[in-house]
Design goal:
38% strand, Cathepsin D, subunit A, domain 1, alpha+beta, 30% helix, 3-stranded antiparallel beta sheet, 10 strands, 172 residues
């Protein structure tokens, strides 16, 4: 019983000082983090340093990115509604992804209905200075997919992406 009473008295004696200790600790933590946050946002605002890429909307409001797939430049529609990055089969073959007919076994629900796709991996993908390796992708037969789509399998690997005033900003 005496132990509990001693602990209670110590807690009562320390309690008035705790808010000051906590406040000074938080202030030191904020001071330590503030310079990096300021320099990072200044860097982003100026567009310099780091790996940032900006894409302007086309007249229809779509964001078309010039992407390098395994060394080949390709224009891709940025599609946040696409779970995976999607490629037409002919483009996949152009960048070195060769599939068998039996690989097209995954049902995909598109705006044009259900089609079959094949899982694939893009070895190297870059957008400006932003680079990725081993990107999960879906290959569709050419008649099922007109334009290649840059989907969430790439966008989720970014630190941040943001759209405002007709510009999409990608930050790695």
């Amino acid at each position: 019983m005496w132990r509990f009473l001693v602990i209670l008295l110590v807690c009562v004696a320390i309690a008035p000082f705790l808010p000051g200790v906590i406040e000074s600790g938080l202030k030191r933590l904020a001071d330590r983090e503030a310079p990096s946050a300021v320099s990072e946002s200044a860097s982003e605002a100026e567009g310099g340093g780091g790996r940032t890429h900006r894409i302007s909307a086309d007249p229809q409001g779509h964001f078309i990115a010039e992407v390098r797939l395994n060394g080949r430049f390709v224009e891709m529609l940025v599609d946040t509604g696409a779970t995976l990055t999607a490629l037409p089969r002919s483009l996949a073959e152009d960048i070195g992804i060769f599939l068998q007919e039996a690989d097209f076994k995954y049902p995909v629900h598109t705006a044009n209905g259900t089609a079959l796709g094949a899982k694939a991996t893009i070895d190297r993908l870059s957008i400006g200075d932003i680079r990725f390796t081993n990107v999960n992708a879906l290959v569709m037969k050419d008649q099922s997919l007109g334009n290649p789509l840059l989907g969430m399998s790439v966008l989720n690997k970014l630190r941040k992406f943001d759209m405002s005033e007709g510009t999409l900003v990608l930050i790695q």
